[in-house]
């Protein structure tokens, strides 16, 4: 059982320096000269200037978009692909900007909440938006959109610590405003990640419907791509291929290279599942070329990992290992724990194939630990299955059976039918030997 992941791509936001660092040095010199002339008030002036500067830094700090990206880099959970990552950054940016609005809370409370966020404490920021949500929800129907925004802000902040904790906030957001495609998409992403494919599919169908009603082609393309991921997980390859090809056609028409790379990568995974390795390699090479052109390290990491899967399937273990190591290094550089877990799992498969069972076990346990921390049922199920194969090879059949039963339960929960059948086959093999 090898680890696979949907194709990923990403874009980076430009960093912007704060107001204070952009002051004109000549102006500072002029002000200093005046202050020197008024020696009697030097201490007061210095204290005042320091207070103003520090207050401004505490109140606004760096731009909200940069602050959001910094928070995401230090979070426990990381995005799967560009559409999710960009959405996450955008929503967290909106939450930070909303929290900085004077009308939301007192200046001191806002500054304290932002500093707490910087330290990883989300409680104060959540409390501010909880009050806003409650106030707006208690008003007339026309205020429910404002309540939806507050709920989304709470979801974006909660996601920093736990995707599971973010889920109810986005659920309330779509209840307040059923026409919010972004909230539906986020809800679908969370449900898919947390092992609820039926709920995710329902959310993505809402996204698609809203995109078609508003004639927003980018929204439709995103929904089709996400529906393709669910179909692939279920083993419905023809349906998954159709979704991704339709999404790709829209992305090409819009000139969205990020989306094109993601769809090409996903089509490559489908081709590989069918055993069409040359076709799969062609898709992944095209995706890699686009991601490299975009400077997307996340996308390149995923593409390298997928090319490694093809090399491994062909028995080219050294080539596969090289791809996986490069992919792991990029994911580690980016702080992407999910990508790191995927490649650790792949390296474990290589080690097991070579007979280095202790080394393989170490890789797989590291991958499992990361997947468990991320709440990724698919990742946990995959590595439990792989660890079971190692136990089976060692003749520890009771241990293998226990690991495979745990793997089976998780695969059943996420509706991964092909994997369910695979693990059932392993368990039947143990029964025959007994």
TrEMBL record:
Q: Any keyword Repeat? A: yes
Q: Which Pfam families match?
A: TPR_12 (PF13424)
Q: Which residues cross the membrane?
A: 28-52
Q: Where in the cell is it found?
A: Cytoplasm
Key words of the record = Cytoplasm, Membrane, Repeat, Transmembrane, Transmembrane helix
Q: Which GO terms describe its cellular component?
A: cell cortex
Q: Which GO terms describe its molecular function?
A: G-protein alpha-subunit binding; GDP-dissociation inhibitor activity
Top-level taxon of origin = Bacteria
Please give the name of this protein.
Tetratricopeptide repeat-containing protein
């Amino acid at each position: 059982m090898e680890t696979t992941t949907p194709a990923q791509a990403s874009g980076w936001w430009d960093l912007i320096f704060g107001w204070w660092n952009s002051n004109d040095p000549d102006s500072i010199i002029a002000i200093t000269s005046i202050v020197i002339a008024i020696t009697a008030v030097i201490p007061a002036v210095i204290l005042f200037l320091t207070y103003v500067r520090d207050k401004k830094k505490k109140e606004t700090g760096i731009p909200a978009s940069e602050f959001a990206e910094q928070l995401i880099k230090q979070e426990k959970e990381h995005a799967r692909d560009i559409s999710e990552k960009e959405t996450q950054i955008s929503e967290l940016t909106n939450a930070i900007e909303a929290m900085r609005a004077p009308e939301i809370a007192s200046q001191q409370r806002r500054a304290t909440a932002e500093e707490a966020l910087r330290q990883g404490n989300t409680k104060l920021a959540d409390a501010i938006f909880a009050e806003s949500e409650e106030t707006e929800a208690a008003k007339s129907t026309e205020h429910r959109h404002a309540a939806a925004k507050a709920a989304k802000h709470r979801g974006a902040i909660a996601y920093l610590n736990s995707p599971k904790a973010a889920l109810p906030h986005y659920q309330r957001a779509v209840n307040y405003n059923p026409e919010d495609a972004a909230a539906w998409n986020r809800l679908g992403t969370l449900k898919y990640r947390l092992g609820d494919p039926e709920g995710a599919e329902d959310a993505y169908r809402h996204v698609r419907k809203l995109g078609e009603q508003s004639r927003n082609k980018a929204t439709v393309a995103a929904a089709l791509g996400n529906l393709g991921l669910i179909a692939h997980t279920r083993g419905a390859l023809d349906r998954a291929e159709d979704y991704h090809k339709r999404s790709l056609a829209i992305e090409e028409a819009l000139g969205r290279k990020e989306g094109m790379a993601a769809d090409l990568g996903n089509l490559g995974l489908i081709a590989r599942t069918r055993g069409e390795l040359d076709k799969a390699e062609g898709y992944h090479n095209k995706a890699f070329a686009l991601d490299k052109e975009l400077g997307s390290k996340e996308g390149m990491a995923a593409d390298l990992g997928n090319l490694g899967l093809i090399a491994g399937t062909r028995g080219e273990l050294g080539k596969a290992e090289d791809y996986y190591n490069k992919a792991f290094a990029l994911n580690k550089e980016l702080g992407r724990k999910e990508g790191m877990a995927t490649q650790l799992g792949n390296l474990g498969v290589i080690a097991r194939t070579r007979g280095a069972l202790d080394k393989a076990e170490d890789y797989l346990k590291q991958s499992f630990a990361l997947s468990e921390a991320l709440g990724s049922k698919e990742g946990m199920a995959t590595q439990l299955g792989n660890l079971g194969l190692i136990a089976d090879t060692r003749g520890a059949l009771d241990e293998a059976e226990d690991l495979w039963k745990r793997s089976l339960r998780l695969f059943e929960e996420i509706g991964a039918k092909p994997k369910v059948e695979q693990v059932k086959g392993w368990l039947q093999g143990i029964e025959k030997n007994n």
